[in-house]
Design brief:
- The structure is a single chain.
- This protein has about 775 residues and is an alpha/beta fold.
- The protein contains 27 helices and 30 strands.
- About 50% of the residues are buried.
- It comes from Streptomyces purpurascens.
- InterPro entries: Aldolase_TIM (IPR013785), FAD-bd (IPR002938), FAD/NAD-bd_sf (IPR036188), OxRdtase_FMN_N (IPR001155), YqjM-like (IPR044152).
């Protein structure tokens, strides 16, 4: 398991007094004249140089306890964006860097003796020692005092106007003021060692070795005309089984050299006091305290697989210097610095986390076809996507599409997918979205227009909201149902419209019971807030309210379990007669069936609680009963919450077993959502943030999956489908913003074909409307 440690106040180590009285309050000017920089890495040195260049009268001292050329690692990769910022801020540094950069375009991925090359990526790197030399020279030119082999004095916050703590991942400053910064340090699953070899790779390399002990990977890139960085990485268990825990540095290096001899072309590896370590992600609640501010790895870390550590530190330095120059007060400047950098860093950390986890779980992908494996690796962080990879290397991307089975000119999202007897013409699903607009559970004109519009909009599958199986199973008074014949007749009106007016679009129904989350106000009146009047009694796996002020549900008796199972089967029969093409059983988001699955909401001591198998028992009984009455040719899917985002709740590993159990009982696909099970959850939001859970279930069980959650662009859909991380993509809010999202996705990609068909009355609008010119006329003559 990953270990996340929230640092306690450091008073136990005798430094609590410093944490509260050490830094003096920011003065009323943002123009500090005495500046101390703790840490002589690239970020600290560059911050010192920038501040001195902005005001030569500043007294700036850099304190570094190591020697000038002591450094961790060998090469540094910088992006064009970062270099552009350096060029504008200090052309002298930029020019020096330019002279030493090694540049290349290709990424090579070697997997099972097959090498795939993708071009057009554009990298620039140089030696870390050379980078430090350039920054040392620039600091000395500007008059910055550099103190090596010297620990920073503890009274710097009292003797200086500003203290920049750039003292790295093991930051003493961060720990000294832990009760203010509130750092969280997460230790991950892989061991890695940073090495070098004395010959230049001609690309950024990823080499995968499948050994008797497990999977190992090499990350490598050139940083000089005669040298390359080499990082060897593997899971902790693989590292131990291979015996690396018993080898010294020299023996480890020799063993790695033999394993990756082909990639190294026989050249030996060398170290720089290298040691095996595990990566730690650092996050801080605050980045400044009084006149002390964190910068670079002291404030945040991002996994080396996306090459961001030095880049982030240098960009921090640029932003800090700019904010100090622009703001009138130091407190304002430090707040502005954090406000500017925090969203950028958070985005980078999400991408780095996705990349890190991909390599941690690389074993899941080894059986992919070689090109798809390479595409999956390239798009792992979601920073590189199908569309921009097509721009970088159209030949490679088209080869991946052909291997996947895309007809020429067909984006992956417009390929068909079969579930039991239903063939969906494309991979887009309109996700279930509660509309809270029914009258006594009866869908009306609103539902006809809402679902009909999205069916006309081109999606392969349109799902209803959660349709409740009983009056007591509603979330709100506005929830739709399928517990009366009148409701079924109203739903038939919707399905008839979809089948007649949007042929080729399937419509599915999601059946569920609110459980302990029922009898609440309409969403826009107060989400999950109890009704002020007209409440109905709630029931759940256990008598635990959703929120402290929520109604406490009754724990279901055996007889009530039987009644609810029969309500689901009766609703399923009505759904079949109403003409739905697919049925989904809602076992997610803390509703009744989900409440049985989670150990946080199921405290039963009978046959339906306790072990994971017992917690699965009732949801599986309901599934079996529904499958028994649902027409055999029509697919039946299940939505689950793959994690509760809460301590002691359902984990990703649990979700795999839950999915495996439903698949064994005949589920045709698993719709993988997360959370909403307990009110005190702590979700880790981000772009397509739930997809890794779907990916894991798909790889581990072989059952088709539907990915959902913050998937918003057609580029995301194409990327996820082509990488093999999901089979279908469900989008909710994008379809509220644009009912014709799928049609517009086709138009924007220039696609016409069977994967999406414009309704005849809409065909005149199948091309993007013309807009006014946004580009300025080019000069007719340049001298």
């Amino acid at each position: 398991m990953e270990r996340t440690v929230t640092a306690a106040p450091s008073g136990a180590r005798g430094t609590a007094r410093q944490a509260t009285t050490g830094p003096h309050p920011p003065n009323d000017t943002s123009h500090p004249l005495r500046v101390a920089v703790i840490g002589g890495g690239p970020g600290g040195l560059y911050a010192a140089a920038l501040l001195k260049r902005l005001d030569p009268t500043r007294e700036i001292t850099v304190w570094e306890r190591n020697a000038p050329d002591d450094t961790f690692g060998f090469g540094v990769v910088l992006s064009d964006e970062t270099l552009g910022g350096i060029e504008h801020a200090d052309p002298r540094v930029y020019e020096a860097l330019q002279r030493d950069f090694v540049r290349w375009d290709d990424i090579d991925i070697t997997h099972r003796n097959t090498r795939q090359t993708s071009g057009g990526h554009g990298f620039a790197a140089l030696g870390r020692k050379r980078l430090l030399e350039i920054l040392h020279t620039r600091c000395r030119e500007l008059g910055v005092t550099l103190r090596f082999h010297t620990d920073a004095p503890k009274d710097l916050p009292q003797t200086h106007d500003l203290v920049i703590a750039a003292d790295g991942i093991h930051s003493t400053t961060r720990e000294t003021y832990a009760d203010v910064f509130h750092p969280q340090v997460t230790t991950h699953h892989c061991r890695y060692i940073w090495l070098a070899t004395d010959f230049p790779f001609d690309s950024f390399r990823f080499d995968i070795a499948e050994t008797e002990h497990g999977v190992m990977q090499l990350h490598g890139y050139p940083y000089a005309p005669d040298a390359s960085t080499v990082i060897i990485e593997m899971r902790e268990g693989v590292w131990q089984r291979a015996g690396f825990d018993e080898l010294d540095e020299t023996e480890s290096i020799e063993r790695c050299g033999k394993i990756f001899a082909e990639a190294l072309r026989g050249h030996p590896l060398r170290s720089n006091n290298s040691a095996w370590t595990t990566f730690r992600t650092v996050v801080n609640d605050r980045w400044s305290h009084g006149n002390v501010v964190l910068l670079g790895d002291a404030a945040h870390t991002a996994h080396f697989s996306i090459g961001s550590g030095t880049k982030l530190a240098v960009e921090d330095a640029l932003a800090l210097a700019a904010c100090l120059e622009e703001r009138d007060a130091l407190e304002e400047a430090l707040a502005a610095y954090e406000a500017e950098r925090r969203p950028v860093v958070a985005s980078t950390q999400r991408a780095a986390r996705a990349s890190l986890e991909w390599f941690e779980n690389i074993g899941l992908y080894l059986d992919q076809p070689p090109r798809q494996f390479a595409f999956n690796l390239l798009t792992r962080s979601r920073r590189v996507t199908h569309d921009n990879l097509r721009l970088r290397d159209a030949h490679f991307t088209e080869a991946v599409e052909r291997e996947f089975g895309c007809p020429s000119g067909t984006p992956p999202m417009f390929t068909p997918f079969r579930l039991r007897g239903l063939t969906l013409r494309n991979r887009v699903v309109v996700s279930p979205m509660d509309m809270y607009s029914a009258d006594d559970g009866v869908p009306g004109d609103f539902h006809l227009v809402h679902l009909g519009a999205r069916a006309l909009g081109g999606a392969g599958l349109v799902m209803t909201e959660m349709v409740c199986v009983s009056e007591e199973g509603r979330i709100t008074p506005g929830c739709a149902g399928l517990y009366t014949g009148r409701q079924a007749e109203a739903w038939r009106r919707v399905t008839d419209f979809v089948h007649a007016q949007a042929p080729g679009t399937a419509i599915g129904v999601q059946l569920g019971h609110s459980g302990r989350k029922g009898s609440t106000k309409l969403m826009w009146e107060g989400m999950d807030e109890p009704l002020q009047e007209g409440n109905w009694p709630l029931m759940a796996a256990s008598a635990i309210p959703y929120k402290p002020y929520s109604q406490t549900p009754r724990a279901l008796s055996r007889a009530q379990l039987t009644d609810i199972r029969e309500q689901f089967t009766a609703a399923a029969c009505r759904a079949a007669r109403a003409g739905f093409d697919l049925l989904e059983l809602h076992c997610a988001h803390g509703y009744l069936l989900s409440g049985f699955l989670s150990p946080l909401t199921n405290r039963r001591t009978d046959a339906y609680g306790g072990s994971p198998e017992k917690r699965l028992r009732f949801p599986l009984e309901v599934f079996d009963a529904v499958r028994n009455v649902w027409p055999g040719e029509r697919p039946l899917t299940v939505r689950i919450s793959a994690t509760d985002w809460a301590e002691g709740g359902t984990t990703a590993e649990d979700a795999v077993e839950i999915a495996r159990a439903f698949a064994a009982h005949g589920a045709d696909a698993i719709d993988v959502s997360t959370g909403q099970v307990v009110a005190d959850e702590r979700p880790e939001y981000g772009r397509s943030y739930q997809t890794p859970f779907a990916d894991r279930i798909r790889r581990a069980t072989g059952v088709p999956v539907i990915a959902v959650g913050a998937i918003s662009s057609w580029d995301d859909v194409n990327s996820l489908i082509l990488a093999g991380r999901t089979d279908l993509c469900a989008l909710a809010r994008p379809h509220l913003y644009d009912p014709h999202w799928t049609l517009h996705a086709a138009a924007e990609q220039g696609y016409t074909g069977p994967g999406v068909v414009w309704p005849a009355p809409y065909r005149a609008g199948s091309r993007r409307p013309q807009t006014g010119r946004t580009d300025a006329p080019k000069p007719r003559l340049s001298l």
